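Hi everyone, sorry if this is the wrong subforum. Our group has a chain we'd like a structural model of before ordering constructs, and none of us has done structure prediction before. Sequence below.
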Amino acid sequence: MRMLATGGGAIAYDVQGEGPPLLLLHAFPLGLAMWDVQVAALRAQHQVVRFDARGFGASPPGDGLLSMERIADDAAALLDQLGIGRAVVCGLSMGGYAAFAMVRNHGDRLSGLVLADTRAGADSPDARAGRAALAEKVRREGAVAAADAFVPKLLGDTTKRERPQVVARVREIVLGNPPRGIADALAGLAARADSTPTLREIRVPTLVVCGEEDTLTPPAESEALRDGIAGSRLVLLPRAGHLANLEEPDAFNRALLGFLGEV
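Answer:
Right subforum, don't worry. Here is the predicted structure as tokens:
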């Protein structure tokens, strides 16, 4: 693990492999560890770059609200640090929201885009209120409050029934995050922009991936992304929920490798 000072803060990052670069942006409330299986599968053919957003994993919290623009700016700074001009950017859930911010603010850095289990729309008023309430609970009770609230929602019914090791791993990653980082990210998620207008700005090859059992950003949201992004295509993964890359890693990796081979 290496550290990069950027934008008045710091991020922990990992780089493995050689070849065309792939940047992975993690979901809330996890960290770069969620991509371990993808790194193992892809590093023989690609330079795989990933980092912990501020306040997650080994990255110290920032100075308040963690905006999607802040994650995107840190991603661009990391590409600069590594001498990478353009990369395929793959974002899952919160990582997808940050990828939309990269399209808006650093569009020249993308050679391709993968949007996994995410949506374009902003939070509803009820969703923002729910995030604020959870942030306050996390400040009082710690990361366990986020784990209790989110882990059941993040995983599909098949995973919860048949893959206890995945449930345990996801909970372990969530519990490893500092409460302040989780609370800052909840504020940033609630404040994020509506990215629906951004869809028509995407001019790079785009793959949309979604678990068929995803209840947080269900397949209808991914269908809307496909319909809104010219030339994009959608892959639905059976037996997977919101964390499709962890729940059905082989199918996710096949879809990703196939797309990368075309880009």
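For your construct planning: The chain has a mean pLDDT of 97. The first helix runs from residue 36 to 42.
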